[in-house]
Amino acid sequence: MDCENGADTSTRKRKLCRLVVLSFALLCILQATLNISLRLAFYSSDTTTTPDCEAIIKNLTKQQDMKMNELACYIQQGWIYFNHSLYYVSSTKNTWNDSREDCLQRGADLVIINSREEQNFIREFKTRTWIGLTDAEKEQTWKWVDGTTLTISFWDTDEPNSLVRDEDCAEIYFYRRENSWNDTPCGRKNVWICEKKM
């Protein structure tokens, strides 16, 4: 009896082993079929989107070409490119308001200084110049021409001081120093710098 029972158990184990091997083989075949199907699906979707990708690339290239042409045009008109902005330095002097009006007519505005690098770049023009900063709306609340409040500043020592009545406009005065800003009356005549973001 024990011998028959042992043979029976051995046969069951072999059948179970074959079933496991067969199941594993079927799973491998199923996995391979799924991989092939998915690759074919991705390949066919890639080929259908290729013309769209090419169109996007062509469009980007056209946009870059247009930007380069626009940039070249501005540079021919005397604008200077620095750090994603164009700058125009006037050759004459005017009041702060008239200077701003000139910038607006050029599709720009008086320069807004957002960093130490930009401050040092503007100082390189080595002239007393208007910047787009004023407290005309509310005394001692300095705002840029785009309406943003002053966060980084380069005022000279003891500036702004409203030493003379109604010193509501900011200028670069002490251009040899990094902290070169001065407040002065807006009716004074200075060179000005326009800035146009690219």
TrEMBL record:
Q: Read off the SMART domains from this record.
A: CLECT
Organism domain of life: Eukaryota
Q: Which GO terms describe its molecular function?
A: carbohydrate binding
Asked if the keyword DNA-binding belongs to this entry, the reply reads no
Pfam hit, one: Lectin_C
Question: In the UniProt record, does the keyword Coiled coil occur?
Answer: no
- Name the UniProt key words of this record, in alphabetical order: Disulfide bond, Lectin, Membrane, Transmembrane, Transmembrane helix
Which residue range or ranges hold the C-type lectin domain? 82-195
Q: Which Gene3D superfamilies match?
A: Mannose-Binding Protein A, subunit A (3.10.100.10)
| The protein's name | C-type lectin domain-containing protein
Task: Look up and give the organism this protein is from.
Answer: Oreochromis aureus
Tell me the organism's taxonomic lineage: Eukaryota, Metazoa, Chordata, Craniata, Vertebrata
